[in-house]
Specification:
The chain is α+β, with helices and mostly antiparallel strands. Helix content is 25%, strand content 26%. It contains three helices and five strands. It is elongated and about 80 Å long. This is SUI1 domain-containing protein. One of its GO terms (biological process) is regulation of translation. Probably involved in translation.
Length: 112
């Protein structure tokens, strides 16, 4: 019988290199979402900021710049989440990029 030199590929994870590397934008994304409340009312949530940042300080600057109210919520699974009144998705993403807290490719905007 003829022996063939064929190698069967093992399980390969194409994202393993991206997860292991320390390149910015590969590990953590910042998710900006909108949640509908009553009627026209809505909430904007910001999740995924680095833990070493002062969430209260960021919230204070966001509230001052956007003239809205907000708070920081502690979640068991997701960690700290910033909530803002109204639809502030585009403004928050611009603020994070301009202040140097995140790069544009790290930010994911969700919602309708």
């Amino acid at each position: 019988m003829v022996e063939l030199d064929i190698q069967i590929p093992s399980a390969y994870d194409p994202f393993a290199e991206a997860i292991d590397s320390d390149a910015p934008g590969t590990k953590e994304n910042i998710h900006i979402r909108i949640q509908q409340r009553n009627g026209k009312k809505s909430l904007t949530t910001v999740q995924g900021l680095k833990k070493e940042y002062s969430y209260e300080r960021i919230l204070k600057d966001l509230k001052k710049d956007f003239c809205c109210n907000g708070n920081v919520v502690q979640d068991k699974e997701l960690g700290k989440i910033i909530q803002l009144q109204g639809d502030q998705r585009k403004k928050v993403s611009q603020f994070l990029v301009q202040s140097g807290l995140a790069k544009k490719d790290q930010i994911k905007i969700h919602g309708f």
